[in-house]
Structure to design on (760 residues):
């Protein structure tokens, strides 16, 4: 293997694939990045078994400008951490790489020479084969929003592995993402394609979706999503993320989401966020993060919390409208702040069906999202 | 105590004094900020015993614009962490504060009301009394540079408490700061005053100087420094930092600094920094961070390092000049990078007196600084 490649192309591809690497992995080969060089260009692959990321660098740009000059095709696995940091710091834009005996590689740039201990590319796990494919396409910016709007609600408890993932459901013309950790739930949906999609349903790790969101750039264009029985492939430009589908059955959450409310509140997202943010400063001193919300006369909403050691806070804000029965409810303010952070709508609607029933939060801008928080049982 | 104060003045003063608070302190009163209100304005004080920071907020600006309206003078101690974060997030610029029974305080801003559990101001330790004062004045930007140029070299080992501090020495017209952890040394000096200063010598905690540097803003003007037997006071604008002088005798380092060299090297700071930075990526994998430097023909300098598991790196750069005997030396690259980070000079001079003698680094821009690194004994 022998080639010359432009640093910034190599650096960008390496930044993407290195996100698959899990520092805690015990297989030495997975601490490396595999480099495959052909006349068409360079392919980089990194993996932690569950997730594999692959990025290709073409030999030339669409305008015909040379990116890679291949003197000799070949493959090698090089230490990822060293490679990623070293490439960034090389003195010149041109980087020369060639393999020597025993998987060793020589990198040259300007007057810098690096000998790297490499590993056998044959030992690197193969990229998952995708059979019985079902695919759909969605704009990169849409998928990025949808992941952001749901992924915060996944469980961090390894005791319910299925809940550490986000459920994806594709119906003929609609894609829904849903996450829950049993205390709260986040769900968002968007129109997809021309309405003749096959039904697709899978659960993928929330952590991996957070990494996927880092790979999707503003100019990434469409993301192509291909699902099989055990794997999902996300194609973003020249980068491919292969992700293992989580085993198990995702719980049916449709029955716990109330559709009719005893009371409804429409408020400014910014105003209620600021009030709960201040109440949280006291609430967090108690482990439960409890904040109380109460409605009063003339669209008044009172948000309050207290901490035995520090004191108490009480806030009033004016709702746009309050309908139905008066509300007096307690909830985990951290969960509410997580929701308010991802709602872009200027106003939001909160629905209540009683002090022990789920609280439902929805943006009023017409976006098809829904957030659920279980209230907290308090004595007062 | 009863007053109305503008949020951004209170916030700024609080950010400054809160830097004295040590979360690990076991005295509950020291988790608070003391607030003293008089007709002249508000004084805030925070302390961890060793360091006390005090900031004053005048009742009005120099132009006569009202900052504080005092309805009733008084004092109280309020929980620092809550106060600092809450003030920042208050909805309005006007903040009303009044004490109630039992040191409780009520804060109001817009429709936000906070009841805080306060503490007895009488229990708060008094600000150190300064007797037998000796003072000098130096520009804020100069003192900030001098601290930055030395503080990185203090020891982090609590077993030599005196070395966790920076030595300050004022001679008639010159101030010198010096820090060492026995493996390296940093020293910088500047002209001060009109040459009839009294001799002053003291050692203060490096950590506290790092905090002092955060208080000194670009427009802080002069810093007045007053020393007694046991305390130093730094006056920066309306903020005062009182700092305990470290007990013990600072070691005499004058004899270990060579003044004549067997070889001298003049190189570009940027070029040698980049080369050592890359060599460090491999060197850090071995605990000693060892990088080798070797001079050759035609002003060539070779920087190299290796890691048994990863490989090796070798770099060539061209020195501006090399005089004296050929050099072949090993050192801790982390220590060298720390030095290169604080040298603003475009070029630097490195002096060698043998493979086991201290390496001396100096900027060539005429600044009176000197850095020393002990070389590392290697077998090859």
């Amino acid at each position: 293997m022998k080639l010359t490649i432009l640093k910034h192309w190599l650096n960008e591809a390496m930044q993407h694939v290195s996100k698959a690497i899990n520092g805690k992995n015990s297989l030495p080969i997975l601490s490396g990045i595999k480099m495959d060089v052909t006349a068409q260009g360079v392919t980089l692959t990194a993996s932690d078994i569950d997730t594999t990321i692959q990025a290709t660098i073409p030999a030339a740009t669409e305008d015909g400008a040379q990116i890679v000059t291949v003197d000799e095709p070949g493959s090698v696995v090089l230490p990822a951490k060293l490679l990623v940091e070293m490439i960034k710091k090389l003195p010149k834009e041109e980087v020369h790489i060639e393999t020597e005996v025993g998987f060793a590689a020589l990198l040259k740039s300007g007057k810098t020479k690096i000998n790297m201990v490499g590993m056998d590319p044959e030992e690197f796990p193969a990229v998952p084969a995708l059979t019985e494919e079902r695919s759909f396409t969605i704009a990169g910016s849409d998928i990025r929003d949808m992941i952001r709007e749901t992924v915060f609600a996944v469980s961090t408890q390894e005791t319910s592995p299925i809940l550490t993932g986000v459920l994806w459901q594709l119906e003929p013309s609609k894609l829904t993402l849903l996450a829950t950790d049993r205390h709260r739930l986040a769900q968002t949906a968007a129109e997809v394609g021309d309405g003749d999609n096959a039904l697709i349903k899978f659960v993928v790790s929330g952590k991996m979706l957070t990494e996927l969101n880092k790979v999707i750039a503003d100019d990434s264009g469409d993301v192509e999503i291909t699902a099989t029985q055990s794997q999902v492939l996300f194609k973003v430009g020249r980068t491919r993320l292969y992700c293992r589908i989580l085993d198990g059955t995702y719980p049916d959450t449709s029955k716990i989401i109330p559709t009719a409310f005893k009371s409804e509140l429409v408020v400014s997202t910014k105003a209620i966020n600021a009030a709960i943010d201040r109440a949280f400063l006291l609430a967090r001193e108690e482990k439960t993060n409890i904040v109380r919300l109460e409605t009063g006369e003339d669209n008044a909403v009172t948000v309050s919390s207290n901490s035995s050691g520090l004191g108490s806070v009480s806030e009033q804000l004016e709702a746009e409208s309050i309908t139905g029965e008066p509300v007096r409810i307690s909830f985990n303010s951290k969960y509410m702040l997580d929701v308010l952070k991802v709602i872009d709508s200027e106003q939001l609607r909160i629905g209540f069906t009683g002090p022990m029933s789920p609280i439902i939060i929805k943006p009023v801008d017409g976006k098809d999202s829904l957030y659920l928080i279980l209230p907290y049982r308090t004595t007062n």
Observations:
- The first strand of chain B starts at residue 2 and ends at 6.
- Chain B has three domains: 2-123, 134-244, 257-373.
- Chain B touches chain A at residues 79, 82, 85-86, 89-91, 104, 111-117, 274-275, 277-278, 281-282, 309-317 (CB under 8 Å).
- The mean pLDDT of chain B is 94.
